[in-house]
Amino acid sequence: MERLISRLKQSLVLQLFTISLRYLLGAAFVFASIFKIQGIRFTPESAANAPINSLEHFFETMYQTPYYWSFIGWAQLIVGALLMSQTFSTAGAVAFLPLILNIFVITISFNSPNILLITFLMMCGNVYLLLWDWNRLKFIALPDPKNYVDDTPMFSKHKIWTFLGIFWFLIVIFLRKVVLTNH
């Protein structure tokens, strides 16, 4: 498996796909984090009177616990920033997994097919990123991981990707603030 991943990493198309996927998943979390950090509801109106077994009521309950709501927001912001940084993307992908898995289980529990598809694709994207960084993660997962080989191609190591990640991070925050201000 390691040799296959290492060979696939040499593909410029897959390198660009991986970099873009980190930006996309990170941006989704950053965008979603801002309203939680600012203490704003997920839905425009209170869902306190919604049926207790509905997704709307669940979101309202989380919103009514401001420390938890804010904690989720900060966790999403930090994980999104790590992913978008490219430099710390492996740590971001590891931290992304429990968050997206939790969100995925919630969408299964409340039978939300539209959100389920999105969270499933985000989870698949995260698994792809974890496999992409398997050479780094095997030291956590395997009892005898052998030697570390840095098989990251030079193209993916260019600092431009980090600067671009910071730029996109700031753009996403700006856009979210504009959207929040206008609604």
How is this structure best described in words?
The model has no long low-confidence stretch (mean pLDDT 89). 75% of the residues lie in helices and 0% in strands. The chain has helices at 2-8, 12-37, 55-63, 66-85, 89-109, 113-132, 134-141, 154-157, 160-182. By secondary structure, the protein is mainly α.
Tags for this model:
mainly alpha
Concise synopsis of the structure shown:
With about 180 residues, the protein is mostly helical. The protein has helices spanning about 1-10, 10-35, 55-65, 65-85, 90-110, 115-130, 135-140, 155, 160-180.
For the termini, the CA-CA separation is: 48 Å
What's the domain count?
Answer: 1
Rg of Cα set: 18 Å
DSSP strand count = 0
> Structural class of the helix and strand makeup?
mainly alpha
Average predicted local confidence, pLDDT: 89
Instruction: Characterize the overall form.
Output: globular
- Number of distinct helices: 9
Regions with pLDDT < 50 over 5+ consecutive residues? none
Strand content: under 5%
The major sheet is characterized as:
none
Helical content (DSSP H or I, runs of 4+): over 70%
The SSE order reads HHHHHHHHH
